[in-house]
Amino acid sequence: MQIKRNVKIKKPLIHYITNPISINDCANAMLAIGAKPIMAEHPLEVSEITSASNALGVNLGNITDVRMKSMLISGKTAFKERIPQVIDLVGVGCSKLRFNYAKKFISQCHPDVIKGNLSEIRALCGIESNAKGIDAGECDKITEDNFDENIEIVKKLSLRTNSVIAATGAVDVITNGSKTYLIKNGCEMLSMVTGTGCMVTALIASYISSLDIFGATILAVSLMGICGELSHHVTGIGSFRTNLIDNLFTISDNTIINKIKCELK
Amino acid sequence: MQIKRNVKIKKPLIHYITNPISINDCANAMLAIGAKPIMAEHPLEVSEITSASNALGVNLGNITDVRMKSMLISGKTAFKERIPQVIDLVGVGCSKLRFNYAKKFISQCHPDVIKGNLSEIRALCGIESNAKGIDAGECDKITEDNFDENIEIVKKLSLRTNSVIAATGAVDVITNGSKTYLIKNGCEMLSMVTGTGCMVTALIASYISSLDIFGATILAVSLMGICGELSHHVTGIGSFRTNLIDNLFTISDNTIINKIKCELK
Amino acid sequence: MQIKRNVKIKKPLIHYITNPISINDCANAMLAIGAKPIMAEHPLEVSEITSASNALGVNLGNITDVRMKSMLISGKTAFKERIPQVIDLVGVGCSKLRFNYAKKFISQCHPDVIKGNLSEIRALCGIESNAKGIDAGECDKITEDNFDENIEIVKKLSLRTNSVIAATGAVDVITNGSKTYLIKNGCEMLSMVTGTGCMVTALIASYISSLDIFGATILAVSLMGICGELSHHVTGIGSFRTNLIDNLFTISDNTIINKIKCELK
Hints:
Chains A, B, C: This is Hydroxyethylthiazole kinase. The structure is a homotrimer. Chain A is α/β, with parallel strands linked by helices. The two termini of chain A are 23 Å apart. Chain A has a single domain (5-264), classed as Ribokinase (UDP-N-acetylmuramoyl-L-alanine:D-glutamate ligase, 3-Layer(aba) Sandwich), CATH 3.40.1190.20. Chain A contains 11 helices and 9 strands. In chain A, a hairpin with a 4-residue loop joins strand 7 and strand 8. The A-B interface holds A 19-22, 24-25, 62-65, 91, 94-98, 132-135, 192-195, 234-239, 241-242 and B 11, 13, 20, 23-24, 27-28, 31-32, 36-42, 44-45, 48-49, 52-53, 66, 241-250.
């Protein structure tokens, strides 16, 4: 299997409309795996740019009126032209504005992948979440007790939206409604540096351009977890961030195969 | 005394409305000391988000119409709900727009802390400043000659606004109007990398969520200075920036106590 | 010759209106060579800030309505007050919006320097380009076959606009219409990390504040290439980015003189 090579050779153009907090890291994460990022967000050019791209990512972080408008234009273009797309639900539990927008986007644009932490996925489903800001709440960690309930929520969302769902957390849950995988890669530092969630979405957007949607999502989520594991032997989160990008750049297919902890539920 | 621990355990949610130049570094600085940053700026969600937060920071850097609107909404919410807040006067001497906005914000929102370099504090007070862009002017350094005059300006601003004032520079002056502390930590490199001033405000916002306002401001300003000292044995400002975040993450209470150079005026 | 010293001593204030993707790296690149960046973009303050600055840079990346408005205001102010200015044509081949805006800006503001990769320069001239997103197309590399044709395009643009043109690529072409220099510094990694093109423009803006326009442009483009060469012995693009800023900070005049590969065409 040639995992990273596909994207490295194709150099797909990925249109990612996202927030300024992690936009630089997201662009570098995409470049690290061989994709070509473009982050255009002007409503008068985004349709043209999505059309020319191999995949689309949209991200609710630090939402603005302009990006709300542009993401919807691009999402509709992507749906119409069968360009794969992913939405990142950043902060969907933090404000009514994001919650309503996310529901509208999903119903009008039919994203191929919906990604959020478990608090965000629960919030989107109208189920009580315990989010603290943009992070998953302590109570929303998947434990033995709530395991089956949470898997069920994620699966139902997938069946209802016909999207692959990636619910991230200490254990990541990825489902297409019929099959569900659990990914147990990652390390604590990934949640201690800003933007790693947005970067996962950048990787998903890059891989769905060139692989099947379900496999691409599993690969992207696992890859970030594995690169986190490879990066965390450092002094602090400043070095960790640099190492993470380095590891996305250098990691070999063999390392991915050896390190991946992905099991069918 | 448990200095950093308070925040690390509480994991306060900090709403910081700030500019894109240093927004990533500010988020990572807050994460480094254990706070949870959220940088939302949409006028339709900021009140909701400030309400859910433990403190608010606003920053005039790279000001936009949207952020001018949002910061005022959030500032009023914070004042009304007694959520501690800090304003960073970035570039207040550069344009009439920022000058007028800063005065309006302070009179309507009553921030607990007003932070700026000495040129900015002077400009806000309508006193001749020698700012060059967003940096303090050469002539606005505190010297033996102008020492008493400048301290007096800072104290008067504190008494008039009823805010703690942090006037940063080679020597930082922090006053609550009755007591004034001088902080002599820091290194030259802190002024040679972008965003360190904005990061100080991020630290102030984080600490005022959990400590008394005056003590929190002193701690935040000192901490950045000390971490600068610990970071400057490097090749250049690229590595310095990485080290600075690493040191914010790793520094122990003992190191803070040993290194702090804070004296009552 | 004292290459870097001029700027280091003058500490020119540089107004750069640019995109959020690389805005932090651009500010740090300018600080690294001794300039003072200010990135203000509010239409109501940019004229005031450009007036107080020693040079202006504008950048089409991630274009917004507000920046389109502000860049035009600042460009006109710079032209009227004879403040040197440079435009970066990021993505001019990606959308009609940027194409039309670039033509308008150039005709109304008369920038001293126009910078783009070869695909962008070709697109601006209405000649078929093979751009992929914001990167130069594979087919737009200068080869032996298309060499003379491409040089001719760049020279004609210079004569028509009366601007120095910097057409970047594996070989950079810089012309003032009568003299044309080829710069052969650089390394592949420079194109594998986001924002290096925007940083070149940041360096051009910094140097045109203090040197003659043509010489400043040659120096800025060469300097980025040389610092790329000095930085690429690293693990990946995360470290490369840090090293690049470090090398911009530390590089000596002697190293520049020894490493520069600049020849008159």
